[in-house]
Amino acid sequence: MSNDNKRADSLTGVCFDTDLIVRYGGRGPRYTSYPTALQFNDSVTASVYQEQAVASNASGVPLSLYVHIPFCHSLCYYCGCNKIVTRNQARVDRYLEMLYREIEMQSELFDKSRKIEQLHFGGGTPTYLDNDQLSELLTHLRSAFNFDESDEREFSIEVDPRTVDADGIRHLAKLGFNRLSLGIQDFEPVVMEAVNRVQTPDEVQNLVNSAIDSGFGSISFDLIYGLPHQTVESFNRTLDIVIGMKPDRLAVYNYAHLPQRFKGQRMINADAIPLPETKLELLHHTIDKLCGEGYVYIGMDHFALPGDELVRARLDGTLQRNFQGYSTHRQCDLVSLGVSGIGNIGNLYAQNAITTMEYEEIIERGEFPIKKGILVDDDDLLRADVIQALMCYDSLSFDDFGADHDIDFRDYFADEIKRLGPLADDGLIELDGSGVAITQKGRLLLRSIAMVFDRYIDQAQNDNRFSKAI
Ligand code: SF4
Prior knowledge:
This protein folds into two domains: about 5-30 and about 380-460, Arc Repressor Mutant, subunit A, CATH 1.10.10.920; about 35-335, pyruvate-formate lyase- activating enzyme, CATH 3.80.30. About 40% of the residues lie in helices and about 20% in strands. The protein is built from 18 helices and 20 strands. It has helices at about 5-10, 20-25, 45-55, 90-105, 130-145, 165-175, 190-195, 200-215, 230-245, 275-290, 310-315, 355-365, 380-395, 400-405, 410, 415-425, 445-450, 455-460; strands spanning about 65-70, 70, 85, 115-125, 145, 155-160, 180-185, 220-225, 250-255, 295-300, 300-305, 320, 325, 335, 340-345, 350, 370-375, 395, 430, 435-440. The strands form five sheets. Strands 1, 4, 5, 6, 7, 8, 9, 10, 11 and 14 form a ten-stranded mixed beta sheet that branches. Strands 15-16-17 form a three-stranded antiparallel beta sheet, covered by helices on one side. Helix 9 links the parallel strand 8 (about 220-225) and strand 9 (about 250-255). Iron/sulfur cluster binds near residues 75, 76, 79, 124 and 183.
């Protein structure tokens, strides 16, 4: 089985098998990193981070920047993000002041020859900041780092449609952003009211029109299934509206109701949440509908139109799983700025302090706000590459992978190959002497397949921080 053939085959679709989903859809990591954040520990200090960052300059690889803006105007009851709901401008000003200091400190670690090819603003709500604040933040970033200003750049921002108007979208384009991610979730009034997030299709369409006119190269929508009052019929109406707006990418997430962990979810009436069997129907219908409308199922909740870069990256081998889900620019080192941000420099994952109070106190002392992380070893790197191959390309050739990594795959992963046997018997994968290929049925259970190669999995499965696969 050549990897190229498998890649082309794997674009053909996904097959919904309720029985397999019920059996294999248990709790597990989403593998936005391997090892997952559960393995992060305090051996990764600010000085370890500084050493690794400086050493990474020898590689000369370009950089990807992530900037975290934690503030929101109001609480969406379903939310499980690290955010601060406030209207206190002084609090925002102080955060920005500390963020600017961190930008300065971080920029001194990296050679100016290393271009910023990728930029992502996440939150919270990055568009909580007004046009002037966003301009000032971009000015700081541009003077500290070497921005790639070519069309090849991928500068994206998460947008809460309730916080921007058409002018705001044009301003984002002027600042250099060329990718938008709009949080939609659902368009049904009863659902939007139940989760305290109300916006109209007309408002969103207006923003989409402005983004297209302003030259944004890719527009992405986030939806959530499993929210209170959703039915297949109601979600179908939302999908019709969404498809009519033709976003290039769609992420359709499963709502996990964990009110003991996320206080805001206690505002949701648990009796109005769809039953598990309805959630499965919602997912099944969504996949059928989107694929029927020409979207390609990338994997793990993500869909894209055939011309989108995610699909091209899947074909040319540059797709990656990372903290934003699926992404391109696999070769970059990731520098994270702001509270709770996770960077990935060479073999190091490093996370900033997760409360703004601690983040700001550390920066005020003139120190890097790194609190924990992990320096991955050779075994972790091998497993991370196996998991990337499975989650991004649905396949793996034992000989090709072994040659690329200088190992005998069958020997090194003999136990794992044995444990793949039952998954092959159940039809999630095809397994033969040459490699493994994930079937259309298995594509909805990628993480259950990847978990075979996770050496920390026993610990992960007992941790309720991980959601169910479906
Ligand atoms: S969903 Fe987004 S806008 Fe709503 S509370 Fe969470 S981070 Fe804020």
